Amino acid sequence: MRNCLFAWIGYAIGVACFFHPSLTNAGGHVTFHTTYTYFVPRSPGGNCVGATTAVGDEVRIPGGATAPVVALYGKSAACKDPRFPINAKLGAKIVCPTATPFNIDAGIDLPDGWSQVKQSCTIANKGYFFFALNKSITASLLISDRSRSQVGDMMSYAKSKRDAQMANLDAPSGSDIEQLVINDMQAWRFEVTGVSRTNKKSFTYLITLIDSGKEVVALVGSMPKDLFPEHREELEQLASQVKGLSD
Asked: Helix (H, G, I), strand (E, B), or coil: what is residue 226?
């Protein structure tokens, strides 16, 4: 495992640092099901991977598990599929869940400066199928969704999400829950601030829940506490960039 790139990334959801993240899709529209790539594809029956694969990326292996790429040996005659020209050495397998969006037609228009990041098992295990970073403002974005039928009263649901986020932090504090309208849909928003148990630094999380009628989408934006007041509006605007929700 490489050293953490931006140690604060993993603390967005109160988890440990994960394998080397590769940035993709800088800005522009990102459709959840076409660009949510947790794992680097490889050729069937061999450890041959794409030319852009990096050490630390995770690949699918038979049986549904994954394994990290621990070494790359360059182009090999054994890798006959032109899509996977690089021979790779894999590490120990990891049993990994897969988070799947309820609405595969939804997406988000990422503003300039934001880039989607390849997922890790740790992120998927939390139910998030989308992860993006804005390095210029040291911010991260996680997205998950679920069927509206799985959620009862939205205010109660928002309170449970706030409590869960606070439970991941030391010295946590949570704001009141604001009810608002985003793109003609009801939404609930709140902030949580607390100290990471891993690096002992303070982070603020802006969490927005959007109720389309058929699904509930959760956006978790975060950044270091001292930077949050200056960039709060930028995190708020991300929710309005979600497109293609059911009605």
From this structure: helix
Q: Compute the 3-state secondary structure of the chain and give helix, strand, coil in percent, each to the nearest 5.
A: 20, 40, 40
pTM of the model: 0.73
Query: How many domains would you assign to the chain?
Result: 2
Q: What span, in angstroms and rounded, lies between the C-alpha atoms of 176 and 199?
A: 27
Reported as a single tens digit per residue, the pLDDT across 95-146 is: 766 677 888 788 899 999 998 887 667 777 788 888 899 999 999 999 999 9
Cα(207)–Cα(192) distance, rounded to whole angstroms? 8
Q: Which residues, 6+ apart, have CB-to-CB distance to 181 below 8 Å?
A: 187
Q: Are residues 161 and 195 located together in one domain of the fold?
A: yes
Query: Cα–Cα distance between 1 and 6 in angstroms, integer?
Result: 14
Buried b (16+ CB within 10 A) or exposed e, 182-210: beebebbbbbbbbbbeeeeebbbbbbbbb
Extract the tokens encoding 90: 């894999």
**Cβ distance 134 to 112 under 8 Å?**
no
Phi and psi of 183, rounded to 5°?
50, 45
d(CA 58, CA 90): 9
Q: Give the 3-state secondary structure of residue 93.
A: coil
Q: Is 53 part of a structural domain of the chain?
A: yes
Whether 5 maps to a domain, the answer reads no
Q: For position 10, what pLDDT does the model report?
A: 47
Spatial strand order of the sheet with 48-49 comes to 48-49, 86-90, 66-75, 58-60
One domain, residues 28 and 142: yes
Helix (H, G, I), strand (E, B) or coil at 239: helix
The verdict on residue 192 lying in a domain is yes
